[in-house]
Amino acid sequence: MANFQEMRSIVAVVDNGSFVAAAEATGQSKQAVSRHVSELEQRLGVRLLNRTTRRLSLTEDGRTYVARARELLHDIEALEAEVTSGTAEPSGRLRVNAPLTFGILHLARLWGRFAAIYPEVSLDVDLSDRVVDLVEEGYDLAVRITNMPSSTLVSRQLAVTRMRLCASPAYLQEHGVPEHPRQLREHRSIGYSYLSTGEEWTFTAPDGTAVRGHAPPRIRTNSGDTCRVAALQGYGVVLQPDFLVADDIREGRLVELLPGYRGPEMGIHAVYPSRRHLPAKTRCLVDYLVDAFHSPGWTQAIPGGGL
Fold it and tell me: Which segments of the chain are extended strands (E)?
């Protein structure tokens, strides 16, 4: 206990700039804070703080000690928050952001059951394909479809989706069936504005090499739903995730093209700002989504196209 108090006091002195400010921040007397720091230095046998009448500064040993002490104190706070959140009843407003199409097709049916399980949680669900800033815009959690979740956020993978190249039977009857990605230049496409690779599509060939193809877009849109409907109407070739087009392929409304060439895979992630002090409401939603997407329907085999 004495070691903890000493550690807490010196970190407070450094963070607040003086013994007086540290005493106010920790609810102790100035004498107690000063005594803790002095006893710590005596016990370690090194000087941690340089004291003058005008300012305080850390010695080299002090910088090493305070940096590690701050980490340990944060870990203790995180542990206590984790234990507390595990016993506290989830409650309060929970702001969630998710992609528009995925949110409608695969998340909308989940919210009612979550609300029934956790009646003290008030859900606020925003659907947008724009990448929001969770911290700046006040979101508790976002669902993102990407290969590279932000390094500044904590992420937990919910599922995987694969991009499928497809077109309607009517379009293929009129324009023919491409047998290699290079032949896509002879076709027209419905382009998706938010695709990270732009108008050039990359596939993995049977031998594992990367092969690129490009079909000039006849229509370009920022909506996956619009891409799908335009493809169903025979306006061109489309590259969209299987969570959107798998049922159409299974039921013959769309035909998967180049089945030997695999489209890119992307992870579907729940992302949130930090593990530290994770509220019970957020932790419960993450666990709920992981369970809900344990075996998503779009990963079922597609006849003639594999998984």
Answer: 49-51, 56-58, 92-98, 121-127, 141-146, 154-167, 189-192, 200-204, 210-214, 217-221, 238-241, 255-256, 265-272
Residue 305 lies inside a defined structural domain of this protein: no
Instruction: Give the structural domain span for 156.
Output: 92-160+266-299
277 shares a domain with 235:
no
Is the pTM for the entire model greater than 0.85? no
Scan for tokens 């500044």, then name that residue.
Answer: 152
Number of compact structural domains in the chain? 3
- What pLDDT is stored for residue 90 in this prediction? 87
Tokens for 255? Answer: 């035909």
Contacts of residue 151, defined as CB under 8 A and 6 or more positions apart, other chains included, come to none
141 and 283 in a single domain? The answer is yes
Question: 306 lies in a domain?
Answer: no
Token duo for residue 117: 């399980």
Site of tokens 């089945």: 259
What pLDDT sits at residue 233? Answer: 96
The sign of the dihedral angle between the CA atoms of 127, 132, 135, 137 is negative
Domain CATH number, residue 137: 3.40.190.10
Rounded mean pLDDT for each run of 10 residues along the chain, 307 residues in total: 81 86 86 90 89 81 87 70 63 93 95 95 92 85 84 86 96 95 94 80 92 90 94 96 95 94 92 79 94 86 59
Separation between Cα atoms, residue 13 and residue 281, nearest integer Å: 34
Assigned domain for 58 exists: yes
